[in-house]
Specification:
Layout: H1 3-15, H2 18-24, H3 29-43, E1 48-51, E2 54-57, H4 59-86, E3 96-102, H5 104-120, E4 125-130, H6 136-142, E5 147-153, H7 154-163, E6 170-184, E7 194-195, H8 197-202, E8 205-208, E9 226-228, H9 231-240, E10 244-248, H10 249-255, E11 261-266, E12 272-279, H11 286-298
Parallel strand pairs: 3-4, 3-5, 7-11, 8-9, 8-10
Antiparallel strand pairs: 1-2, 5-12, 6-10, 6-11, 6-12
Helix pairs in contact: 1-2, 1-4, 2-3, 4-11, 5-11
Length: about 300
């Protein structure tokens, strides 16, 4: 069992795709498949279930990741801490890091990440500004900040990359995620296995800081009741109305307790959500990269 094999399997749980995970790790599909088969042979279990709609994890695979994911995060954190300790004269690189943020995921971990970072770089000032996803690439072009954290659906992100000169900046995908539908445990929808498009069309719905997905090819995706990362609004809406709140699975897992709220799969093939970083400079400052490494290790 090798660490990279566990990383591949962990990524597949979000992409549900051999090809997407292979692309993310710069592997051929054949090489990735061979790695998974070797792991299956070693453990004498089946890890992936294949269907016309992609691949999904078996019960054994989920049990394996429940044990291995904490280890992988600890390993990454060890690497980051070691890199920080080896850095000489860090304050010569940058005095002020300007962070622009359009990501609930990052706001979950940024305070802890900054606290860890400041222990190593006490003289580096950090400022954080919340922005809309619509402004992300204009700020990149203006080089208005040192790093941008964003959560964004795959289709919109790729559209923006196609429209801008990617040779002038650098980006990195920290986590690949899936959209889920969150409802109150008291809602009649909580009894359903899957939230269908007709449910979304007939209910008030909110988007938690994600570029809206179109409903049934209709151009009314911006008619959501609310589209922001104000967590309190989404919580109150779910408590007081029969609302469907659409959000990344990672955010639901970390912010919404399973006693009062439940998450449901959405009907049809759902777009992938990218939790990403964009550096306005093609060659990011090493100290800024250290901060991003800390954030990534905490996810």
């Amino acid at each position: 069992m090798r660490l990279e094999q566990l990383r591949y399997l962990s990524d597949i749980q979000y992409t549900n795709s051999i090809s997407k995970t292979a692309n993310r790790f710069f592997l051929s599909q054949q090489s990735l498949s061979n790695n998974i088969r070797q792991l299956e042979k070693e453990l004498n279990v089946v890890l992936l279930e294949r269907s016309p709609f992609g691949v999904s994890l078996t019960k054994e695979a989920r049990e394996l990741l429940a044990l291995s994911d904490p280890f992988i995060k600890q390993y990454d954190d060890l690497q980051n801490q070691f890199a920080l300790q080896r850095e000489e004269s860090p304050d010569e690189f940058v005095k002020h890091i300007r962070i622009y943020c359009s990501s609930v995921l990052s706001t979950l971990v940024l305070p802890k990440a900054i606290a860890l970072f400041k222990k190593r770089y006490p003289h580096t000032r950090i400022s954080v500004k919340e922005i809309s996803y619509r402004d992300t690439f204009s700020f990149v072009e203006k080089k208005a900040c040192d790093i941008i954290f964003l959560s964004i659906n795959e289709e919109y992100f790729l559209e923006q990359l196609a429209q801008h000169d990617v040779s002038t900046f650098h980006y990195n995908i920290m986590l690949t995620d899936r959209m889920v539908a969150c409802v109150s445990a008291q809602s009649p929808l909580a009894q359903k296995e899957i939230i269908e498009q007709s449910d979304i069309a007939s209910h008030l719905f909110t988007y938690l800081n994600i570029v809206p997905l179109k409903k049934n090819n209709a151009n009314d995706s911006n008619l959501a009741l609310y589209n922001s990362h104000n967590i309190e609004f989404h919580l109150r809406a779910l408590q007081e109305m029969d609302v469907i709140s659409l959000m990344p699975r990672y955010v639901y897992t970390n912010l919404f307790d399973s006693k009062h709220y439940v998450s449901k799969f959405l009907e049809g093939a759902q777009q992938t959500i990218y939790h990403a970083t964009i550096y306005p400079d093609k060659t990011p400052n090493p100290i800024v990269k250290e901060l991003v490494n800390i954030v990534t290790s905490l996810i």
